[in-house]
Amino acid sequence: MDRKIKIIVITALAVGWFTARASLGFTDVVIIVNRENPVKTVKKSVLARYFLKKTTRWDSGARVVPIDLTVSSPVRQEFSEGVLQKSPHEVEEYWIAESLTGGKLAPEIVSDPALVKKRVAADAGALGYVDKTQVDETVKVVEIAE
Amino acid sequence: MRILRKSLTIFVLAAVIVVPPAFADEEIERLKSEMQSMRETVTRLQETIARMQGVIEKYDQQPKVEAPRPAAVAATGDVEDLRSEVDDLKDDIAKFMKISGYYDFEWLMDDKEASPNEFKQHHLSFFFDKRIEDWHFFSELEFEYAFDYAGTGGGVTGGGEAKVETTWLEYNHGDLFNIRGGKLLMPQYWTANHYPSQTVSTSRPLLVKNVIPFDTTGVSVYGTKYFKNEWGGSYNLFVGNGEAADRAKDDANEDKVFGGKLTAHMPFFDRFDVAGSTYIGSNAASKSEWMWGAEAQIDIANFGLLAEVAHNNNEGQFGYYVQPSYRFLPKWTTFYRLDTRDDHNQIDDPDDSTRHTVGLRYQPLTAISLKGELYKDIPDDRTRERANGFISSVVIFF
Questions:
Q1: B278, CA 20 to 30 Å: which among B76, B78, B140, B264?
Q2: CA distances from residue B159 to B7, B148, B156, B162 in whole angstroms, order as listed
Q3: Across the interface, do B197 and A105 touch by the CB < 8 Å criterion?
Q4: Which of the four CATH numbers 1.10.340.30, 3.40.190.10, 3.40.50.720, 1.10.3900.10 does domain A28-145 have?
Q5: Nearest 5°: CA angle at A35, between A41 and A77?
Q6: Which residues of A touch B198 (CB under 8 A)?
Q7: Do A101 and B192 touch (CB under 8 A)?
Q8: Sorting pLDDT into bands at 50, 70 and 90, what band is B49?
Q9: What is the ipTM of this complex?
Q10: CB contact at 8 A, B102 and B118
């Protein structure tokens, strides 16, 4: 009986641990695009591909231009864990691997959410993320679908 | 093997020493122009820093604001202008060729007789990366074991090696189609991703460079497509010169090598990729060479699984490895690898062996890796000496 209980507990912990990352959702972070971008909803997996540059074009054919915040930003932390399913450290590892193999360049990194909005407002293909309190009329918010 | 080493040495000397004089002047002029551009950028940077210092002094002299400002208050015009100038400078700097690299240093010890423990200054590699619109140039120049060339017409000293590991120019049409020409690494997983800053282990699997050919000089096309149901596929097809010491210069025979890799990206877990690959052609001895391979890469939260298998009809070589890994803390990863290589499908061949490796990697910073691993070699030939050993390394990506 003890052995069975141990197996159940370990299995439950393992399942809980595996699903922990999957269940992380957004709380205060929103995704923003240029106001001329016709996209209204983006799947989380597609968003991840945009930011890791595994997909580099919008459905319209325009080039996707992702804008990142600095690694130390709590907004970046939440976005990395919630959308990319990677910590910012793991994302840095990913971009080192791309550098070593002649892959894609890492997204531009800016230090200030105001600059994220400025970049997104100025480029029809740009894509960024900010705290929801920082959204204004210069950019458009898109919904995230699972 | 000695002939191969001599041929490789002669090839490297020819590549390093014999620079066509016709291109030297053009290269000097281009470098002068780049240096002038860099000087102008540095001057602008210095002027911007001076302006920033002026703004900071101006704010320091202003009366302090008593109530805290909410975060959403727009910055003043001076700060906005400065930010815009810094961004413009970043754009200018991004136009220069990007130079990066990695370095690793190793310590090895084992319990074999007449096998001294040793330090190895293994790799010093430089990557050159330049993008102009949809065109992309990339090259890796690698120095191994502190390459030492004594000039004045003398021979090469030391056990080092200098080589152009890979160099190519590609056109990026889009996600679905890209075309690349140059000295190309084979697309199999470990060959394409063998860099110490990427791998959790210091040692490489036994089948790499033995069962799977390492590179060719030719042309490849590649691309990726994802579908609405989240499934995706990638392809990489190549044609090039066959395996030979001078394959970057000429082909030993009329036959070319063809091959490629097809990968299915499945929407399971964090990553679930499976791929099949092939390599068909003639080697320097005009002997038919045909390799098939398969690989899998699976990521589930902090668990990772890598596996590759390959068979080459050249001497009947076969090999595989399975490598689970687990990132148990943000900066710590542990792994185990089982790998085997069977060179002749005959149990008493001296090169047949199976290796068990277990190790740790610590990354105090993302660009720095400290690695240590224990291994146990078990040769198929029971009369051969078994070996147990320890390998450690420190790696920096810059």
A1: B140
A2: 15, 8, 9, 10
A3: no
A4: 3.40.190.10
A5: 60
A6: 93, 96-97, 100
A7: yes
A8: confident
A9: 0.81
A10: no
